[in-house]
């Protein structure tokens, strides 16, 4: 997996060389998060919080629902971590606090235990930032005397992942030193993400071949490499080599095929197929999911003749990086039989689908449309009326009928107020994670 980084300082997205020298600055974090999320998780780092110079939390909050974010920078208590998870953070990155204990340096086992207990080991990422093999903290300014490999082994039981930054190469785009990455991979069992100096597709493929993910910043922002190419290079093409798996290189060949599953945003499985490097490149370029047709042995874009294209939302890989999941919006029925999907005849009816229908009724009111007549006062009266009738319902059938009425009118009220179903689900998710 390729993880793009959004580092925030003084309310701006920045890229720093060696953690100090400002190289570039942007002011569009929401746009960046939406774009980066297409290719993988997004690392959001609050540099001010990390240095104890303030917080950018209000800028970060909306990013947590815009993209699948892992968040770091100044997270010093399990309570802080839990709050960020409740706001939508997928994973939490901790650094300095993991190696400071009662004024001395060493792996803070009690802190890591408390963090893992509070948010779950699978959500905890420990940053093992190292300069020449020594763990450094406080924004890489303070050496700890801790050996990278020794410290990583001690952290391993508590973390679902390690973020290893080769500090001496961070922001320089001079290339990654793979030797400590190899040693780290041999030393621990948890997942590893590598950062610091990575600037070529060959390096990304080599890191992926070690079963590690890569986090990129400077190379993306400066245009040295782009995310579509990095995503393709990070896949396990050796497993996709159909002719000679034993001799296949890490980068794709014309014979490399990987299976791809397409799913609608509401979770319905639409179809499966195969993809190769060419099809993925075209998918990202066109914004519609493309496949490699094995029967015709050529590139094929779903819907190129029918118009029922699959508009790409995001692409993800499985844990072994040898199978893909494309989240896509279908423009119409997907199966060649005319069915909505290759696995179901009809589209699943969902709350979001209901709101889409209501939105369309308001946007293009048809003659006789009841929904289009519902102004603000009337719909509020109906919500109160249906809530009362639901409370008075006795039988199962009555409860189903009245609950459906209430959900419909409540959704009309939400739609008129500009509130989406997803925003309601996000709030329920936040309460669940508290």
Features:
434 residues; alpha/beta; eight-stranded parallel barrel; 17 helices
Descriptive account of the structure:
By secondary structure, this protein is α/β, with parallel strands linked by helices. Helix content is 36%, strand content 24%. The chain has 17 helices and 20 strands. It has helices spanning 29-36, 47-50, 57-60, 63-66, 78-86, 109-119, 148-155, 178-187, 201-209, 218-221, 227-233, 237-240, 277-286, 351-363, 376-392, 396-416, 421-433, and strands at 2-9, 12-17, 21-26, 42-46, 69-72, 91-94, 100-101, 104-105, 124-131, 134-137, 142-147, 161-166, 191-195, 213-216, 258-263, 269-275, 290-293, 298-301, 310-317, 324-330. The strands form 4 sheets. Strands 1-4-5-6-9-12-13-14 form an 8-stranded parallel β-barrel, surrounded by 7 helices. A 4-stranded mixed sheet has the order 16-15-20-19. The chain has a two-stranded antiparallel sheet with strand order 7-8. Helix 14 (351-363) packs across helix 16 and helix 15 (376-392) runs antiparallel to helix 16 (396-416). The chain is globular, with a radius of gyration of 25 Å. Residues 242-249 have low confidence and may be disordered.
